[in-house]
Design a protein that fits this description.
The strands form 2 sheets. Strands 1, 4, 5, 6 and 7 form a 5-stranded antiparallel sheet that branches. The protein has a two-stranded antiparallel sheet with strand order 2-3. 4% of the residues lie in helices and 30% in strands. It has 1 helix and 7 strands, in the order αβββββββ. The protein has one helix at residues 34-38; strands at residues 57-59, 61-63, 69-71, 75-79, 85-97, 100-107, 119-122. The chain is mainly beta.
């Protein structure tokens, strides 16, 4: 037989074919009960268990990488959105994970045509004004 000639498919012998008699239990289909009809025929997907995020730990003070201590209300130098150095006041400190301290600040200076409500900075980068 060459590669282009299809293989001949032979039917199975009668001994291999199994028939189910019409009256047997396998062929009888039971009527669904009313409670079965109300149930969906599929299983609903389950939501994965979500662990809530850990709350931030708020602190009263923090140190920069030079060891200088900063407190709430201290004035610091930050980079403003317009690119210049600006003066801002520390509103709070928080720790996201061990060793990751951040300071939230609000600007004390304003500039025309700019709306700036504040920002965050890593505590190790703080500079006193």
């Amino acid at each position: 037989m060459d590669e282009k000639t299809p293989a001949i498919i032979r039917p199975k012998p009668v001994a291999e074919i199994r028939l189910t008699p019409a009256g047997s239990e396998k062929s009888v289909r039971r009527a669904n009960s009313p409670s079965d009809r109300d149930k969906p025929s599929f299983s609903r997907p389950r939501r994965p268990d979500v662990t809530p995020p850990k709350p931030w730990v708020e602190l009263e003070e923090a140190q920069n990488q030079g060891g200088e201590v900063f407190h709430l209300g201290d004035l610091i130098e930050v980079r403003a959105p317009w690119g210049d150095v600006a003066i801002a006041e520390i509103q709070n400190f928080y720790e996201v994970s061990p060793g990751s301290l951040w300071a939230c600040f609000v600007p004390t200076e304003e500039r025309e045509d700019w709306t700036w409500k504040g920002g965050s900075i890593r505590a190790e980068l703080l500079k006193k004004a």
